[in-house]
Amino acid sequence: HALPGVENLNLAGNNLGVENSANLAALVEQLGGQLKYLGVSKNLLGDSGASMLAKALRRAANLKKLDVRFNRISTLGIELIMDSLADLPNMQVLDISNTGWAFGTSSSAAPKQQIFAYAKEHIPWILLNWDESE
Fold first, then answer.
1. Of 11, 96, 113, 126, whose CA is between 20 and 30 Å from 120?
2. Checking DSSP bridges between strand 8-10 and strand 125-127, what pairing results, if any?
3. Does 4 score more than 90 pLDDT?
């Protein structure tokens, strides 16, 4: 691995944006199975960044906690992340609070309920808080 010993990576609040999402994904791929915690809240990743991150997360077999709060990710992006987490047996906590989608409050409530149902079965703790002012 390029960064031996790195199990926890917290890049919260760096405003990486979509333009740096490919670099983030590459780093997650490099860390692979050694990564246990990934914190990327407050980085404005959007759905494009979520898509790149989701692909990279498939290599993080030992990931236990993922924090993607405050990233303006829609239901589509959350679905991509959830799909990637399905292959991670150690996943325990997913924080998708304030990502930009509000559970059950719009015409897209059905997909959101499916996401919640999936998470409830596969991830012991999922944090879904949101601030309507965001």
1. 11
2. unpaired
3. no
